[in-house]
Amino acid sequence: MSIAKLNKSSDTMIKTVSMKKDTLLLSPVITLLIFITFLFISGFEYQIQNTEATSSTPTDSSTLSDLIQKGGEMLNASRYEEALVSFDRALKIDSRSVEALNGKGLVLNQLGKYEEAITWFDKALKINPDFTNALYNKGVTLSNLGEYEEAITWFDKTLEINPDFVDAMYNKADALGELGKYEEALVWTDKALTLKPVTHNNSDSKDLLLPND
């Protein structure tokens, strides 16, 4: 090929110039063939390089469950923006994943975006009306908004499906206490305590529900 000729000695170059006349007549054809070959090789190399570039592009091999799990881990670590990214990526895989919808609502609740959080719980509940986590979390978010009466209705819906949902009992008791319904609040606190004693607070939860004198 012509590239190899550039590496030959000067004697060889002189011999090349001194080729026979009939060989010189064929040179345009040879040149054309070399040019076509060069284009083919160049194109082939481009396809290889292009394929390699495509294959080296980072791909998201995370599964739906991986992203939901990571979102939960980031949420527990108070890394809310990262949690939101994980749940959003999960929803790109499955926009009807009630776990991802509920997870996004939880993150928004932690960020203080309560109304927006409720819309995501509602999306999950539209797909699965009996999804207790979303029912309960909507109640918690309504409590955060000070909507205690409405919050209690959602805690009740949670308890209709799962009568042993202890956190729903505690939060219902808390909402009742906020409304001044202390006796009823204590009833629900007692129910919760029989299933799961409070360990995260040194104070008796009953005392926290009583009015301050």
Taking the sheet with the most strands, its summary is: none
Radius of gyration: 36 Å
The gross shape turns out to be: elongated
Q: Ranges with pLDDT <50 over ≥5 residues?
A: 1-26, 29-59, 200-213
Helix content: over 70%
**How many beta strands in the DSSP annotation?**
0
Question: What is the subunit organization of this protein?
Answer: single chain
**How large is the count of helical segments?**
12
- Estimated structural class: mainly alpha
Estimated share of beta-strand residues: under 5%
C-alpha end-to-end distance? 100 Å
SSE string, helices as H and strands as E: HHHHHHHHHHHH
Mean pLDDT: 75
Describe the protein in words.
This protein has 213 residues and is an all-alpha fold. The chain has a domain at 2-56. It contains twelve helices and no strands. The protein has helices spanning 2-5, 10-17, 21-56, 64-76, 80-93, 98-110, 114-127, 132-144, 148-161, 166-178, 182-195, 205-209. Mean pLDDT is 75; it is low at 1-26, 29-59 and 200-213.
Question: What would the keywords be for this entry?
Answer:
single chain; 213 residues; mainly alpha; elongated; disordered N terminus
